Amino acid sequence: MVGDVVVIDASASLVDAAVTMKEANVGILSVVSGGRLRGLITDRDIIVRAIAEGADPATTLVGDCATRDLICARPDTAVGEAMEVMAECQIGRLPVVNDEDQIVGMLTLSSLALRSSDESDALHTAQQVSKRSSKAA
Prior knowledge:
Layout: E1 7-9, H1 14-24, E2 28-33, E3 36-42, H2 43-50, H3 62-65, H4 79-89, E4 93-97, E5 103-108, H5 109-115, H6 119-136
Parallel strand pairs: 1-2
Antiparallel strand pairs: 2-3, 4-5
């Protein structure tokens, strides 16, 4: 699990999000409101959901462009279970939240592959997630 998750408030602008991504050298931010995870926003979301649609990144809010219907894990979620969810849902990142819906980490394909004792499971998960990526291209 990646523990150093970069967060941004849902009321911040897309410009603020882009600057935060640049400064932290990341392509994804956890969107929070009142301390609770409310969504995720990627650099691609900013381009596709906002700029390409003509939105002004200086006035458009992060919360308006973030993916909000998240699938999350809990701190006690087993590695195998997390990999199954990621493969089934074709997602490359799985936020980890506590009982108060506060983000405590992020499971990624690479972090799970490093912890998995079964290389074939890790490969299967990566292949399933890649199916989504190839459909979008």
